[in-house]
Amino acid sequence: MAELEKHGEIGKAAMRAGMDRKTARKFRDAEKLPSDLKTPRTWRTREDPFDEDWDYVQERLAQAPELEAKALFEHLCERNAGRYSEGQVRTLQRRLKRWRAQEGPSKEVFFAQQHRPGEALQADFTSGNELEITIGGERFLHLICQVVLPYSNWQWATVCRSESMMALRRGVQAALFRLGRRPEFLQTDNSTAATHSSRGEDGCFATWKEDGKPASKRRFNERYIEFVRHFGLKPRTTGVGEKEQNGDVEAANGALKRRLKQHLLLRGNADFESVGAYEHWIQEVLEKVNRTRTKRLDEELAVMTLVQAERLAEFVVERVRVTLWSTLRVLHNTYSVPSRLQGELVEVRIYEDHIEVLHEGTQQLSCDRLLGNGHARIDYRHVIESLVKKPGAFARYRFRESFFPSLTFRMTFDALHGGLKSTWQADLEYLRILHLAARTMEVEVEAALVALLDAGETPRFTRVEAAVVPQRPTIPDQPPPKVDLKSYDGLLEGEVA
């Protein structure tokens, strides 16, 4: 039509528009756009194969609206053998989708909320495993604790290993001191770090909603309440099972991981020298993003209160007595300690990623913290001295698997049991080798074991000790030297002269 207005030649206009002359003439005579000439089709091109059973399908949907099309299709195939073919399930899915939109039950409506500046700080945990981060070449399984101001979308994050109170305290505290100001509320979901279930005497929730969710909210943990009160915050949580109420930080979790993934691609690799270096890299990325949000952030900071509280220690303290087995129990997990601490009351500092054991203020042990329940971290060096004296206890020792620090030691144990007739003697030989590793260097003992196993020898203790412990040099028997002092007399005579 634009070309016709220029010169009025239908052939030239059709050629310029890339269409046939007859088609161009049709549009010219109709004086309408091609989209205006199209009329929606209201008829079917083929018969609906489910017309005969549709009344039955509607009856089943009335009884159970959550039924899916695939389950209904399989049921119809069983009910009417040979009537339907496998490729017709898509037809039923489309018809069921149309029925749900036109006649189905009402759906839950979500309401967009208007955030007020400086009202709340939202905190949440998200898995960082999909980023495939490695620390020193080894895969690093971790979580990211993210804190967001919903009004300005300012965000901060720390790296953690679990959804623990220590991790939440560290993440929120880092964000508050980064801002220098605090909002009115700290909002979380119903994670066990902040809340615990509110149940009746029978262990069940008192009331339930129609959708099967518990009606009563979970109560806040005492430690969490003490933490938020320390900074002058008010605790606030979402409803049980209502994670959309924490929607801003939930949406920010996905956006953060997508952003980090892009920056990792630009970086060229996902390997970091330490967890601290990885966390510092995340925070550098967030600093750049937060610079684009300064206008709305300034509005929030203007109505927020200065943080005047002191920074809390990023650990909790428990006092535990060491058992006769030279172990202690911390957060439902077992750790070994040096045997000299048996019966002593020790202070255990529980950090997010490790624990420290102190006796009267002096540190005795530091090791990685175990996650979950019912696990054990036993260091053979703590108890091997006693076990060598009682080798009969090794066969049924509860934590025996902890006494194989590597595959080489396990192969040594199997070789001793295969090469010696006495099981007791084989256990004693292995314990002596392990005791040697505790007294010297484990890597040197392991190297000696590898050499003996490769040579096809049974790795006896004496052979390993000879390879690891160097022979003491013999002191030669020399007579005492005879001292002649006459030369000193000559010196004295010269001095007198």
Question: Any overview of this molecule?
Answer:
Helix content is 41%, strand content 16%. It is α+β, with helices and mostly antiparallel strands and 497 residues long. The longest helix is centred in the middle third of the chain and has 21 residues, at 247-267. The N and C termini lie far apart (135 Å). Mean pLDDT is 86; it is low at 200-216.
Gyration radius (Cα, Å) is: 38 Å
Structural class by sheet pairing and helices: alpha+beta
Count all strands and give the number: 19
- What strand line-up does the widest sheet have? 5-4-1-7-10
Percent range for β-strand residues: 15-25%
Instruction: Kindly state the percentage of residues in helix.
Output: 40-55%
Number of helices: 18
Q: Note the gap between the termini.
A: 135 Å
CATH class of the largest domain: Alpha Beta
Shape: elongated
